[in-house]
Design a protein that fits this description.
Layout lengths: L1 E4 L5 H17 L13 H9 L3 E6 L2 E10 L24 E8 L8 H15 L4 E6 L4 H10 L2 E7 L5 E8 L2
Parallel strand pairs: 4-5
Antiparallel strand pairs: 1-2, 2-3, 3-4, 5-7, 6-7
Helix pairs in contact: 3-4
Length: about 170
């Protein structure tokens, strides 16, 4: 298993993984990612251009995807306002993990934890001691994975489309 940057020619496979994740969330009545506008191919293209898109390759097959942003994240300004709580630490630089999806047949095998660990190592390599993620309040599988990894809930943030997300933070020593 290898986690590496996404190549532009892999975008269709990444979109398949995302489509399958959208379908799984719909089946579980999770409203996250149910807009046809998000995530879309252009979002992933921009992630790749920014060097922020990553895939998990296992035995030659792409099985998971995520993006990691540091400073240049277009969505980071959504973290400027938090309600019903506060960040554990507000000042300083941080890395944020977005658009994390694992192919259905690979769920429950620890891939999300490996992706989270990769993001933490990336944050540390940049000298950050702050790592963030958010998800929909009804996304039980992701909430469980996030909390299992050690992220702490901090409050509510709002996305570009005004939908609310639970924001999590992990302070890195």
């Amino acid at each position: 298993m290898e986690i590496r940057k996404t190549k532009i020619e892999e975008i269709d496979r990444v979109m398949e993984i995302i489509l399958h994740a959208k379908e799984a969330m719909k089946a579980m009545h999770i409203p996250q990612w149910q807009s046809p506008d998000y995530p879309k191919k252009e979002d992933i293209e921009e992630d790749i251009k920014q060097g922020a898109s990553y895939v998990v390759e296992d035995e030659g097959e792409l099985v998971a995807t995520m993006c990691l942003y540091y400073r240049n994240d277009p969505a980071i300004d959504h973290y400027d306002y938090i309600e019903e709580g506060k960040w554990l630490k507000e000042e300083g630089n941080y890395v944020v993990l977005h658009r994390c999806a694992v192919e259905d047949e690979y769920k429950g095998k620890g891939y999300s934890q490996r992706l989270f660990a990769f993001g933490e190592a990336y944050a540390r390599s940049l000298g950050c001691n702050d790592y963030r993620i958010d998800t929909h309040e009804k996304n039980g599988p992701m909430l469980k994975a996030i909390e299992k990894y050690g992220f702490r809930p901090c409050g509510i943030v709002y996305m570009y489309d005004k939908t609310k997300r639970i924001a999590f933070q992990k302070l890195l020593a």
